[in-house]
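Journal club side-thread
Mid-discussion, someone asked how the predicted structure for our own chain would compare to the paper's figures. Pasting it here so we can look after the session.
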Amino acid sequence: MAKMRIAIVLNTSWNIYNFRMNFVKVLIAEGNEVHTIAPHDEFTHYLTEAGCIHHNLKMDSRGANPVKDFLLVFELMSTYRRVKPDVVLHYTIKPNVYGTLAAAILKIPTINNVCGLGTIFLKKNLVSSVAIALYRLAFRFPKKVFFQNQDDRDLFVDKKIIALSTSDLIPGSGIDLKRFAPFDFKRNSTFTFLLVSRLITDKGIHEFIEAIRQLKASGIEAKFQVLGAKDPRHKRGIKLGVIKEWIDSGTIEYLGTTKDVRPYIQQADCIVLPSYREGTPRTLLEAASSAKPIITTDVPGCHNVVMDGYNGLLCKLKDSQDLASKMYMMTNFDDGTLKKLGDNGRKKVVSEFDESIVIRKYLSAIHSLDS
């Protein structure tokens, strides 16, 4: 097997470090030269310390200015010319579209990963039409496109954005089963719900807040925690004043951000994510792998990780009343039921979402380019 020069392109160095690092280590252990291409952040040094050659990228992961974004094609072409990779692995929307076009112009093979569609495909408007057109243009070129759930794959095939033969399924970014190991079961004296997410509307934050208010009004004694970055500059970000009001009124206990979510997951009784749509949500994989019951929405991505009544409860999309009723049900489960839900989640993750499955599929796709 010839050694290869492999470029990995993402919207943040944080994302590579947190979700792809074990894969990167396997590539390096095989003797490949790994180049990471992403905006510089506080996690970039971990990539170079692991043996990657890093290239900074000017990319606003929040913005949606097509003219500004299209300049990414030229920036990435310049980087690819310098690096001369044998293959480029793209993740997240902008690298998938603009990185693929840059690589196609230079005749460099690409393998893409549709990490999730966000809400862009839920609406029929100019933005979604442009997005579909850009995907259709770019996705004529990749050697392989991995999808994180069957719904997203079907959507791309149905809209003729991609041929079925070019696509494949992987279980999200996978999960490191040793790192996210189960904790000994222990119920809190005050039942504790934890939502782990960036504070943007697509994650169902407003529904979570409304459900909390309904539960508190009916006299439910519970803790409601939120862990994740405030992101007011995101076009669907929640204003700082609104978050401050939630904290000051005691609606939520805001935990800020962390480099290690495990202690927070350990201290919660149930993880909640009322998201509108996901690829395969990392938060839920971490919760299930840690043997925690989950409440999430019955939407693509989320219902891949949670089976209703097996390892958690599914609620209706954008329905705070249904979410509140599922949270109320969860507080009333006895210890045996809570433990069973958690144990089932761990079983599901072990059999379906082990990151070694993802790594094997990627290695197979990369090695096939060399054959």
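Post-session note: The longest helix spans residues 66-83.
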